[in-house]
């Protein structure tokens, strides 16, 4: 019993970040609506704690949608000059799943320790009661996956 029953890897994932946007979420709700209209699926959403009236928000998309996203990002830059979007592509999402996580402490710590031992470049972490998702750059990706497999005693699905 180690908390993780499945490790899956998804490649060609892009990270989109909007720094210092209004904490009222009007802008990001418009962004999410625009993405939905373009058929772009958003995953791994993470928002920072507010600093004054500003937040940072990051999320992932499939690299297949990158051209559509870049067109939207250019529109936002023109319409909202204060908004500074960042886009990083060619990343991988490593997802650890396990129903046991709900009742087990330390699973995230073990996953992060394995990534640290591989000197992974972790771009974002999101969690739920039964899932830990790590967005990783290509740097030391295979070593990170190998150490996660060793840590949790299962083979990753790619």
Automatic annotation (TrEMBL):
Chain ranges of the ACT domain: 16-91
Any Gene Ontology biological process: homoserine biosynthetic process
GO cellular component, one term: cytosol
Pathway connected to this protein: Amino-acid biosynthesis; L-threonine biosynthesis; L-threonine from L-aspartate: step 1/5; Amino-acid biosynthesis; L-methionine biosynthesis via de novo pathway; L-homoserine from L-aspartate: step 1/3
InterPro entries linked: ACT-like_dom_sf (IPR045865), ACT_Aspartokinase (IPR054352), ACT_dom (IPR002912)
EC number: 2.7.2.4
Top enzyme class: transferase
GO molecular function: aspartate kinase activity; ATP binding
Protein name: aspartate kinase
Lineage: Bacteria, Bacillati, Bacillota, Clostridia, Eubacteriales
């Amino acid at each position: 019993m180690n908390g993780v029953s499945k490790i899956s890897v998804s490649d060609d994932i892009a990270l989109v970040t909007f720094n210092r946007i209004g904490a009222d979420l009007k802008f990001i709700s418009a962004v999410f609506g625009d993405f939905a209209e373009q058929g772009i699926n958003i995953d791994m959403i993470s928002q920072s704690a507010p600093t004054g009236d500003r937040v940072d928000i990051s999320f992932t998309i499939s690299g297949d949608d990158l051209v559509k996203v870049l067109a939207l990002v250019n529109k936002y830059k023109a319409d909202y000059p204060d908004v500074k979007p960042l886009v990083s592509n060619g990343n991988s999402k490593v997802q650890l799943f396990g129903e046991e996580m709900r009742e087990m402490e330390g699973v995230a710590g073990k996953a992060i320790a394995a990534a640290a031992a591989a000197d992974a470049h972790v771009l974002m972490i999101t969690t739920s009661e039964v899932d830990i998702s790590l967005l990783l750059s290509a740097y030391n990706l295979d070593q990170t996956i190998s150490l996660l497999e060793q840590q949790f005693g299962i083979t990753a699905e790619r």
